[in-house]
Amino acid sequence: MCETTTRTFTQYLFCVIIINMVDTQKETERLLEDASHRQAGECYARTIEALISGGKNELASNNPMLSDLTKNAQIALERQQIKFVSGKYSAKRLLESSFPKERIVGLEGATLENPSTGIVLVRIPRRALEKLHPGARAVAVFSNSHIPFVLIADYDDKQITQIEDEENLPHEVHHIVWRAGRANELIGATEEDPERKRLFLSFINEVVATMVSNGKLHGHCQGMELTDELIEANELLSEIDEQLKRTDYKKTDLIIPLLEAKNMKELVTVLGKIKSELKNIAKPEAVPTNGGWTSISV
Length: 298
Ligand SMILES: [Zn+2]
What we know:
By secondary structure, this protein is of the alpha+beta class. It has two domains: 21-62 and 192-280, no CATH class; 88-187, no CATH class. The protein is 55% helix and 8% strand. The chain has a four-stranded mixed β-sheet. A hairpin with a 2-residue loop joins strand 3 (138-143) and strand 4 (146-154). The relative contact order is 0.10. The protein binds zinc ion. The site of zinc ion has 4 residues, from helix 6 and helix 7. Zinc ion binds at residues 171, 175, 206, 209.
């Protein structure tokens, strides 16, 4: 801070400029360069992996919000696992209690995975998933009457199934963690209108899902139209996605900066800052060199 009161206007101006430069620098560092933010994003991704595999994540989160979110989900799931293991659930029973009878006809091929370790998965043939939930690659299913589970497709090709799982499983498991966090009010927003708040939180939920699964950065909210701010946020996310390819940053590095936005306006500001910092870091796009088709006139 400038403490001297007897300074000329020029000195004052210089001082303001210096303060602004320092503030901008701090702000930028806070968003992307902060190693603790990167560590927290990494830790969140590892916790999601552990929830899928049933293993343990040894890395402790240094971020209170993400730490509470994952602890809360783990406690909720442990309680449900006890119920689940003693409840003799089957893939068929889970499907029957989640979807109308007429839509689950012919799902004999459904199998249960991870029944006593991580998140429960119900694997069904790709075509059956298309019938059950048109357009979905995987679905996180919640109900008051049973444990949450991920409905996931089995492709005829093992390799395709594996590639699809790599993105779809963390994406859907994040939704389960997020939902448990919202139920216990661990995730908040400052949007006053309840509908805008719901839309904003659903949008952020989707964006974090794409970050944790290394998917295409994007947000949406089923059944609700996006506001102008959220349309702008999606445009920024698309540009950020392109910029990231030319840096060493991972999508999980952006989770904490993103979660600092508590309303739609702040979201656009945060994404704008991330974009401008990445612009300075990103290597220039490779200029295509002429192939073997150059003609030389002599
Ligand atoms: Zn999603």
